[in-house]
Design brief:
645 residues, mainly beta, 10-stranded antiparallel sheet, 7 helices
Length: 645
């Protein structure tokens, strides 16, 4: 029986089990068919907003299939409750390839090891082929004749001295294999240069390599003797005026749905849906074996398939609420990732404070935030995505990057595309560019985005002393104006306003997106990756809502020639004034690796912030009490005050 009581409920194990049977009954399942992705096919927003408890619940799923025998792929919509296939789309090669399967990755090593050209190249280098590890990677698109309409991956190589040896310390550089995954053969071997294999180990998990552990750190315990302040009802979370639904998907990972804030006993919507819709990691090394390195981790790898099962005390501390993630494996069976999502409260320092010399008032309140997070490991890198909700209505999304650098042989100080991180070991320059899809709903579905920036006022009448400055707002009227750049020199931000909802000052309520001031894509405008990852060329894109427009680089970015996703969405040049709008925000670091990033990288951070601006009539945290564990209110001479310990 289907127990899901809401149209945005995550697909259940039972529903996943049903999907395989429905697809088989429709004649779409062969012995060589594999399941690339299965996720909720969400109803139109208007249908969801009109839903009332007790209404019939539409339960559709979107399933992407590939036949490994010939590489043909299909995109299938299934009505789970009706046990029927709604539609089948054959994915044409010009649409791109579906994401690469783990099964394919495993086959590539065998294909390469059997190739005579590879064996000769390894023998020439004096390396034992049994110690060579193949690292298969997405191929990109470069118009190579023998790759057109073929399903292709590329592989770089590393050496492993023993089963516990971190191969990333020993790149076998100057060699690259191009593999046709359907035909099961190496179609090209690039043997560019015989570079020395770095010898020093990088086994950060080996006590002998690490050395003695420090003994100076004392225990730090986080306790909540009365339990956490949040309430959980299935997938619905309420916490300190916030309310939202927890979602999870094998492609996007953690999803926040229907995020609202209770103000004056009214639940006010802010974001309908928020997720990481795509990310790309473009590398800067132009060598013949590395120029193609750029990975779309969500669209090419379905990166949330590799979500970690989080552990108390290591990944999360304090009073923890875990949520499992249910995905479909490549055979079409449901797979439960235990503790895929972690949720907990954190103290976050001072919320507000003032010591008033006139009244003698001395008041301090502490900030607290709710943290909702997941971690996924994609090859050498580990990515954590953390959503923070604050008492004052602030929303943040932060990516935490750690793991191991993708290394090369260091080619000397005259080679300007990598840094040396260990003797003879290079770390190529690269970027991590994330695309957050923010389906906004600030007090309703009719929103307008304004770009606001500081403006100097020249000396003149009314500004005789030259101290004046102000701000200026530009309305983003249509999708042709929807691509915007951040500018730290003028403090540029983007206000998502609701012209139909006015605050007590007669101004439209709004939330403001504060970007970080990091570079956009640094590849040349004519580069293949620039066309394929067009979303990375601006910090902000604004489009009109369409439930079919889910992914920043399009549905099938693997081997896509470019122009998919946001550029395609914007061709209609739809109105953005007083419309249902979606913001696509690009953020992330440009990484020039340091020796301190090796052999395992301390966490690097990238984030953006959304803050209320005129959404509330005053500070919404005046009702937050003083912390009983640290401060006690005591009257002082001439006024009110606190003693803080």
């Amino acid at each position: 029986m289907n127990a899901v009581d809401h149209p945005l409920g995550n697909l259940t194990v039972h529903e996943m089990e049903s999907l395989r049977g429905i697809i088989a009954d429709a004649g779409l399942l062969q012995d060589s068919t594999r399941f690339v992705h299965a996720g909720l096919e969400e109803p139109h927003k208007n249908e969801v907003l009109a839903f009332e408890p007790g209404d019939a619940v539409r339960r559709w799923a979107r399933v992407v299939l590939i036949d490994l025998a010939d590489g043909t792929s299909r995109d299938v919509i299934v009505d789970i409750n009706g046990s029927a296939v709604v539609s089948v789309k054959d994915i044409a090669p010009e649409d791109g390839q579906v994401a690469i399967l783990d099964e394919e990755f495993e086959l590539i090593s065998t294909i390469i090891q059997a190739d005579a050209g590879f064996q000769a190249a390894i023998k020439k280098r004096g390396i034992d082929a049994a110690k060579v590890i193949s690292i298969p990677l997405s191929a990109g698109h470069y118009g190579f004749e023998d790759e057109i309409n073929h399903r292709v991956a590329r592989s770089l190589f590393f050496m492993q001295d023993h089963p516990k040896d971190a191969c990333w310390a020993h790149p076998v550089d100057g060699l690259c294999a191009y593999v046709d995954m359907t035909e099961g053969r190496v179609i090209k071997l690039v043997d560019f240069m015989d570079l020395p294999v770095p010898a020093e180990a990088g086994n950060y998990d080996d006590p002998d390599f690490r050395g003695p552990e420090r003994t100076s750190l004392k225990p730090l315990e986080i306790i909540q003797p009365e339990g956490p302040s949040y309430q959980v009802d299935g997938e619905v979370v309420t916490w300190e005026n916030w309310k939202f639904r927890i979602g999870f998907d094998a492609r996007e990972g953690l999803i926040l749905r229907q995020l609202s804030f209770k103000d004056k006993e009214k639940e006010r919507p802010i974001i309908y849906r928020a997720s990481i819709a795509e990310m790309v990691v473009p590398y800067a090394d132009p060598s013949p074996v590395r120029f193609w390195q750029n990975y779309f981790d969500t669209g090419e790898y379905m990166f949330a398939r590799y979500t970690n099962s989080l552990e108390l005390g290591c990944d999360c501390v304090g009073e923890i609420q875990y949520f499992d993630g249910v995905i479909m494996d490549e055979q079409g069976r449901p797979k439960t990732i235990k503790n895929a999502i972690c949720m907990h409260e954190e103290d976050y320092g001072i919320l507000w404070k003032h010591s008033d010399f006139v009244t003698g008032s001395n008041e301090t309140r502490r900030q607290r935030r709710l943290v909702i997070s997941f971690f996924t490991t994609v090859g050498n890198y580990d990515y954590g995505f953390f959503w923070y909700l604050y008492l004052d209505g602030t929303i943040e999304c932060e990516s935490k990057l750690t793991g191991i650098l993708f290394t090369s042989s260091y080619r000397g100080k005259d080679y300007p595309y990598a840094n040396e991180v260990a003797p003879g070991l290079g770390a190529p320059y690269h970027q991590h560019l994330f695309s957050a899809r923010l389906d906004m709903m600030v007090d309703g579905t009719k929103n307008t985005v304004k770009e606001v920036e500081a403006r100097r006022v020249p000396v003149g009448p009314g500004n005789e002393h030259g101290n004046a400055f102000t701000n200026a707002a530009t309305t983003i009227k249509s999708e042709s104006e929807g691509g915007r750049m951040a500018d730290a020199s003028v403090g540029r931000t983007w206000h998502i306003t609701n012209p139909g909802s006015l605050n007590r000052f007669g101004e439209p309520v709004s939330y403001v997106l504060y970007p970080e001031q990091n570079p956009t894509l640094l590849a040349d405008p004519t580069a293949s990756v620039t066309s394929r990852a067009a979303f990375t060329t601006k910090q902000l894109w604004v489009t009109q809502y369409d439930p079919a427009e889910r992914y920043s680089a399009g549905d099938y970015p693997n081997q896509h020639s470019g122009g998919g996703g946001i550029p395609e969405f914007q061709k209609a040049n739809r109105s953005l004034e007083n419309e249902d709008v979606v913001l696509w925000h690009t953020f992330g670091p440009t990484h020039f690796p340091r020796p301190e990033d090796w052999p395992v990288m301390p966490v690097d951070y990238a984030k953006f912030t959304l803050k209320p601006h005129g959404f509330f009539d005053r500070n919404p945290t005046l009702d937050v009490p003083a912390s009983s564990s640290h401060c006690k209110t005591e009257p002082e001479s001439g006024g009110h005050g606190q003693t803080c310990h």
